[in-house]
Design goal:
Elements (H helix, E strand, L loop, with lengths): L3 H4 L18 E7 L18 H8 L2 E3 L2 E2 L5 H10 L31 H7 L3 E7 L17 E5 L14 E6 L10 E3 L5 E4 L16 E2 L2 E2 L6 H15 L5 E6 L7 E4 H6 L6 H26 L6 E7 L5 H4 L15 H4 L3 E4 L8 E3 L3 E2 L1 H11 L28 E6 L2 E6 L2 E6 L4 E4 L15 H16 L8
Parallel strand pairs: 1-11, 1-13, 2-15, 3-16, 4-5, 4-11, 6-8
Antiparallel strand pairs: 2-14, 5-9, 6-12, 7-8, 9-10, 13-14, 17-18, 18-19, 19-20
Length: 470
């Protein structure tokens, strides 16, 4: 932490020859998609090795109470990018499918993104991967603070182009080829159909091309590998200047497609759905490892703040993604939907191997990046707090007294170890210190506490606005 002031000494240097050790820190956000709390090895995962995510945790700080602001993709990313509760500006629900292309559907242009703030401060900025904050021209990433963009605009994308060569693909369907229900596997065992979910796989690629800047491109490789390649290239090209790289993998989000080499690696997993998920997660982990290796090869490891998290909890039935030992998953405000893997690594600044239990939120990533970049923002405009005090030798007790959630009629609050939650019904109360799985409702036993905390939620909610769309 004593090196923060020297790191800001090059604020006025624009020639590009500032030594890396004296330059403002690079900032790398790595976001996984739909990765459950219980999957990485460092969070208790057993059957799918994640050595690179685990190594990142060993090199820095792993938070056991890391939260996102929504249990679904787009609202969660809106808060991450702005450092503000997405309900402050009406971005409450997921725009999916054709809704992504409707006028006015996107992160409101009045909201400043982290890319906006860092680019205006002299950082080179890039988004590699998934955007999902608006699919029309006014919301394009390059109009929202990013110098470069390689990825797609909507909620998902197939990992390889048709006819899906080199992967095994699992698809949701409403009926099998014979009109029945259950599971069907193609003769070459490359395609699996399942009716268990009761609906079809979304048309992810419809009007959703892979883009470089704003132009469609053909990508023959697996997107997880391609995004790592593009991230590495950006690091190499910008090693002489401070950069912000938002690396937003779509793995392990559906559609489920496992590459052949990884499917072979996990041939011992008998359940084909779980095997495909394992292949996807291992591919993601290896890709993260390649990006981190590029930082080392470029001698930027000590001058790069790296933050890793998932955008929400895993949809277990859809993907098999585990949120253990938490209750619930994606789309829910139970802990399994909003508590996620959350790791901060910064060699020489973040203490290696530290595990912290105090609650932190994805909005804190935004505030942290602004602080290390030397960018001043009115704190009243942000809901996150810088994580830097938690990287000190004697970290503060907590950054937040209370965290809040609203997703339509699903509402929640965490105050200390107390969790208040309702799903279109009465408030329920849980003591997370003794009941991390939210099994015992204490609302009837603690009515005064419920009244007090629900009043806190009501006061917070009064400051939010109505959803811009549903």
């Amino acid at each position: 932490m004593k090196r923060l002031l020297p790191l800001l000494a090059c604020l006025a240097i624009v020639s590009g020859d500032c030594p890396a050790a004296d330059r403002r820190p690079n900032i790398l956000f790595i976001v996984a998609d739909d990765l459950g709390y219980g999957e990485p090895g460092c969070y208790g995962g057993k059957d799918i090795p994640t050595p690179n995510i685990d190594a990142l945790a060993a090199s820095g700080v792993r938070f056991t109470n890391g939260y996102v602001t929504a249990p679904i993709c787009a609202p969660s990313r809106a808060a991450l990018m702005t450092g503000r509760y997405q309900t402050r500006f009406g971005f409450e629900f997921n725009p999916i499918g054709a809704k992504n292309t409707l006028p006015g559907i996107g992160l409101p242009v009045a909201e400043k993104t982290l890319g906006d703030r860092l680019r205006n401060a002299g950082y080179a900025t890039s988004l590699v991967g998934k955007w999902h904050l608006g699919g029309t021209a006014e919301f394009h990433p390059m109009r929202r603070g990013f110098d470069e963009f390689f990825g797609f605009l909507h909620e998902g994308h197939f990992y390889v182009p048709p006819p899906w060569t080199g992967v095994t693909t699992w698809l949701r369907r409403t009926a099998l080829p014979d009109g029945g229900q259950g599971r069907w596997t193609s003769p070459d065992e490359r395609i699996v159909w399942s009716t268990r979910m009761g609906y079809r796989e979304p048309d992810y690629d419809a009007d959703n091309p892979l883009l470089r800047e704003s132009q469609p491109v053909a990508e023959p490789g697996n997107l997880t590998d391609a995004f790592a390649r593009e991230a590495r290239d950006f690091i190499v090209r910008h090693k002489a200047q401070p950069f912000f790289l938002y690396l937003a993998f779509n793995a392990v989000h559906s559609p489920m497609q496992g590459a052949d080499a990884y499917m072979k690696k996990f041939a011992h997993i008998s359940d084909i759905q779980r095997r495909i998920f394992a292949a996807m997660l291992a591919n993601l982990d290896d890709s993260i490892g390649r990006v981190l290796a590029q930082l080392r090869e470029s001698e930027l490891e000590e001058n790069t703040l790296v933050i890793f998290l998932s955008d929400n909890g895993g949809p277990t039935e859809e993907l098999t993604s585990s949120n253990a030992p938490l209750r619930g998953g994606k789309g829910e405000l139970w802990e399994g939907g909003i508590r996620i893997p959350y790791i901060v690594s910064w060699k020489g600044h973040a203490p290696a191997g530290r595990v912290l239990d105090m609650p932190v939120t994805s909005m804190d990533m935004n505030a942290t990046a602004l602080e290390v970049a030397g960018v001043t923002v009115d704190k009243a405009k942000l809901d996150g707090a810088s994580l830097l005090p938690l990287l000190k030798e004697n970290p503060v007790a907590a950054l937040h007294d209370t965290l809040f959630w609203r997703l339509g009629r699903k509402n929640a609050l965490r105050h200390g170890d107390w969790k208040l939650i309702r799903d279109a019904g009465a408030w329920q109360l849980f003591d997370l210190a003794h009941d991390i799985a939210e099994t015992t409702d204490l609302a009837a036993r603690e009515p005064d506490r419920v009244r007090e905390l629900s009043a806190d939620w009501d006061r917070w909610n009064a400051g939010q606005i109505a959803p811009l769309w549903k």
